[in-house]
Design a protein that fits this description.
It is found in: Membrane. Strands 2-1-5-4-3 form a 5-stranded antiparallel beta sheet. The chain has a 5-stranded mixed beta sheet with strand order 7-9-10-12-11. The radius of gyration is 59 Å and the shape is rod-shaped. It is of the alpha+beta class and 486 residues long. Helix 1 packs antiparallel against helix 3, helix 6 runs parallel beside helix 9 and helix 7 packs across helix 8. It has 3 domains: 170 residues, PAS domain (Beta-Lactamase); 140 residues; 146 residues, 2-Layer Sandwich (Heat Shock Protein 90). Helix content is 56%, strand content 17%. The protein binds adenosine-5'-triphosphate and magnesium ion (MG). Magnesium ion (MG) binds next to helix 8.
């Protein structure tokens, strides 16, 4: 039976199989019993006939009248199954015989054991009954009657035919009974399975299986299933309300965070902006002191003034960078088609012009066209190529490449150099403002560049990451959303 058959069909098949097997076993037993009874009555009937013929043949045997014996034997023609019979003398010689037809005639005479009154032989679909004939305490001969077993065979065939129809009727009855039982047994099981399927498909825990009126294992199963559903429904509702509460809280916190961030940025912007004024005063005063009292200053004071100059210059740079970072965050995006390859080539040309002494091998992938804010992308590319230029200044020749590759169908742009590289353990800090992995004495900078780049890339819906090792160069890769084929 296929494993995906329904329980109702399985029950029906089971009923039919049980009925058939039970009926077959009972029928085989009955057939055996019936055949054995039929054999016994056949032998009894043959024995009776043998006794009658024997009684009627006494005088023929006594007076040696075979013709009269043959006459008596011919009476057996009335029994359709008897094929032949014969009378023997006491020494086993044939005295008289009768055969229904020549083709059933047998020439071999049966022999009777001396100590038995009667012998029955079943051999190749025939039965032979042999009986002694005694008269006045003397054995005067023997008689044998030979019969076929067609009556037994007919009886067996009739039985098998009836059995076939009874079997058919029983199967039909089993089918009807199964169908009636389906409603009470298979029906609720099928409905339970149906409900379970619906619940799992629709995730609707308010559904319930139809309770059974009976008090059996099935009704216990349905009740347990429904109780389980009730519990899940309660937990599901609790989970949903907890989730929506959590979502509300997250939204609330996000709003607070955004507001705080905005305040912080506005604060840092205005602080940076306001610092410019006093700084310009410091610069101006220092310039005046240099101009008016330059020659009168002692070398110690001169050194102090130079340091004030350096510090205010660096502070100015920091303020500029901070303002740029804040501007990037605040600025509106103007999306357009941007040729990043041309942009990179332009930046390299400017850098070469500013540092004509540097030997740099430059590779720029052609036709990197993206959709983005041209101004912001220029700031990002300036920073990334500027970094590669700066941090590879210790190598000659330096090698810098701007390229594009594809990862999972998305274009990934990268700027790769063979410069100082960085310790990968510090990777998380690279994109945080004012975090630097190289000392100021080695490479100048404020540490705001990559933080600015990251904000720009994120504004474009992309991601930026870095790979590198100390003295083995660095690669900065980024993706942009809505980037057309490069
Ligand atoms: N191409 C690079 N190779 C090695 N280290 C790099 C590279 N680019 C950036 N870094 C490391 O990341 C740090 C942060 O870079 P970022 O551009 O933000 O700052 P910066 O270059 O030091 O200063 P600036 O704000 O002037 O750009 C750098 O100090 C440097 O240690
Ligand atoms: Mg930089």
């Amino acid at each position: 039976m296929p494993t995906n058959t329904s329980i109702a069909a399985k029950l029906t098949w089971m009923n039919i199989a049980v009925t058939t097997v039970a009926l077959l076993v009972a029928s085989v037993g009955f057939l055996f019993y019936d055949q054995s009874n039929a054999r016994t009555s056949l032998v009894t009937s043959l024995s009776t006939q043998a006794q009658i013929i024997a009684a009627n043949s006494v005088s023929a045997l006594e007076f040696n009248d075979p013709e009269s014996a043959r006459q008596t034997l011919r009476a057996l023609a009335a029994s359709p199954n008897v094929e032949g019979a014969g009378l023997l003398t006491p020494d086993g010689q044939l005295f008289a015989e009768y055969w229904r037809s020549a083709d059933v005639r047998v020439n071999v005479l049966p022999s009777l054991s001396p100590d038995k009154q009667q012998t029955v032989l079943f051999f190749s679909e025939k039965v032979t009954v042999i009986r002694n004939i005694d008269f006045g305490g003397r054995r005067i001969g023997a008689i044998y009657i030979r019969s076929n077993l067609s009556s037994l065979n007919e009886r067996r065939n009739r039985f098998l035919k009836i059995l076939f129809f009874v079997l058919l009727a029983c199967m039909g009855a089993a089918l009807i009974v199964s169908w009636l039982f389906r409603r009470t047994v298979a029906g609720p099981i099928a409905e339970l399975a149906d409900t379970a399927m619906k619940v799992s498909r629709e995730k609707n825990y308010s559904l319930r299986a139809q309770p059974s009126l009976a008090h059996d294992e099935l009704s216990t199963l349905i009740t347990a299933f429904n109780e389980m559903l009730s519990q899940i429904q309660v937990r599901d509702a609790a989970l949903l309300s907890a989730r929506s509460e959590l979502e509300l809280r997250v939204q609330d916190r996000t709003k607070q965070l955004v507001a705080a961030n905005r305040d912080l940025e506005a604060f840092s912007y205005s602080v940076s902006h306001d610092l410019r004024g006093p700084l310009e005063v410091v610069n101006g005063m220092s310039y005046i002191i240099h101009l008016q009292y330059g020659n009168e200053l002692s070398p110690g004071l001169k050194d102090c003034l130079d340091r004030i100059d350096d510090a205010s210059k660096r502070m100015n740079e920091l303020i500029e960078d901070l303002l740029n970072l804040a501007r990037v965050t605040k600025s509106e995006m103007h999306r357009e088609r941007v040729d990043v390859s041309a942009m990179a080539r332009e930046i390299f040309a400017e850098l070469k012009q500013r540092h004509p002494q540097r030997v740099v091998e430059i590779v720029v992938a052609s036709d990197a066209i993206v959709v983005g804010d041209a101004h912001l992308l220029r700031v990002a590319m300036d920073n990334l190529i500027g970094n590669a230029w700066k941090y590879s200044s210790n190598k000659s020749p330096s090698k810098i490449e701007f390229g594009v590759r594809r990862a999972n169908g998305t274009p990934v742009y990268f700027i790769k150099d063979n410069g100082a590289g960085f310790d990968p353990r510090g990777m998380q800090r690279l994109f945080q403002p004012f975090q630097r992995l190289h000392p100021l004495s080695e490479f100048p900078g404020t540490g705001v560049g990559l933080a600015t780049v990251q904000r720009i890339i994120q504004k474009h819906g992309g991601r930026i990451w870095a790979e590198g090792a100390v003295n083995e160069g660095a690669t900065f890769s980024f993706t942009l959303d809505n980037a057309p084929e490069s």
